[in-house]
Amino acid sequence: MVMAQLIVAGKNLGPHPVVVPIRSTEDHRPLPGITVGDLGPKFGFNAMDNGFLMLNHVRVPRFNLMQRYITVSRQGEVSRPANIDPKVTYGTMVYVRAQIIRTMSQTLARATTIAIRYTAVRRQFAGKSDKPLAPSLESPVLDYGMVQHRLIPLLAQNYAMFATSQAFLQHYEKCMHELNNGNYASLKELHATACALKRWTSDVAVRGIDTCRHVCGGHGFSQFSGLNEFFGNAYPNIIWEGDNYVLSQQTAQFLVNQVRALRKGVRVEDNQTTRYLRKHLVSGHLPQRPTAWGAAIESLAADATAQLSLLSFRAAAMAAELTDQMDANGRSWNRSLVSMQRLSDAHSDYIVAAYFRAHIATLPGASPLLPILNKLATLLFLYVLSQNSSDLFRLPSAAAFTGAQVSRAEELLAAVIEDVREQAVPLVDAFGMSDSRLNSALGRSDGNVYDNYLLWAMQDPLNTQDTGEEVRRVWFDKYIKPVLHSAETSKKNAKL
To answer: Which superkingdom is the protein from (predicted)?
Structure first.
């Protein structure tokens, strides 16, 4: 299937899918005009045979054009079914990106399971943690603040990612049902949010897996950890199906267009994005005196609705600011690209948090899971604040945070991280990752890390008695022995 520009009578009708046969069904050789081959070894994902393709004056029948949404007659007449949006082909891309969101949540879950289990078992230094088990007993690595700060927020992001992957896939299916019934109103917002979430989840997952490797120390870089395979296979997700830096432009462009429409008084579709823009923007502009968030960060940390309101206000303020810079100040598209990255991430931070909170709200009020899940959601919120403090300082004056507020948010984050650490191992166990799926000596459910690591190592051909001894004998006789006995050899040669 080739996505190609459809040009009829000199008029470019945009990209459309065309079936192009590549190889002969008789001998499997490339057809005339086609050059095809494998790209060669890659960093990870080598089981996938990615290839290159060159087409030189290749002709296919008109029938090979996928003509569900467009028809080209033998006479070159172009027609479309009534009320068809040409961007309907985006639906396939959105589906693939929805699958990437789900895959990233599962891959990150494997990595966090391995890292948290291992750091709960691995002990190092006595009396150094805040909660030493005994003066002479070494503490689990997971009890150290720096390890917690790197892993526990990742665990919160992972839970939020699971909720987002399920909710967004349901949203996609609902939108596709509407599209099939001729309603294309949801398509643009669906595409923009898919771009943002694909970027957010793949960035978090790839960097998260790498963090998991680091906190496992030297063992994290062993193939027996399982983490390196996950990292190599996950890494291409930040590039394929739309490079993440390019995808952010799609999201930012949609947001800016919605702000422009609100400023012109043009009707915008009702969806998750436009609802928060309309909530915080008056005629497309931030109100002169937006509601202050108050001095107490504790009140924000205890109020899920206030958390979502702040995250959506941040995204709306950034969208309005970027629109001002481009429209009023004449900033070019190229000079706006960095701001677009930040805006896309701010939009995603809100969407992910909203989906996570909505997912939690489906549980019964008496569910014993609510306390820990609410802590994870609050942790995620505080982590966003601490990682994006510059955005909080740049909010309109009545809503801008002070340095004291940001410092207090960081203190609360540390406290929640330490609190969640007590349930970190049960939280990753709840992912239900089997030992065979983890394929890791470090992340085993029985906790016998070193016994299994040694067992795996002893199964290496270099360590088996027959193969290993033979290899070492050859190495010694051919390379080592001549060097060790070079003096004796020289003396013998001199006598001769």
So the answer is: Eukaryota
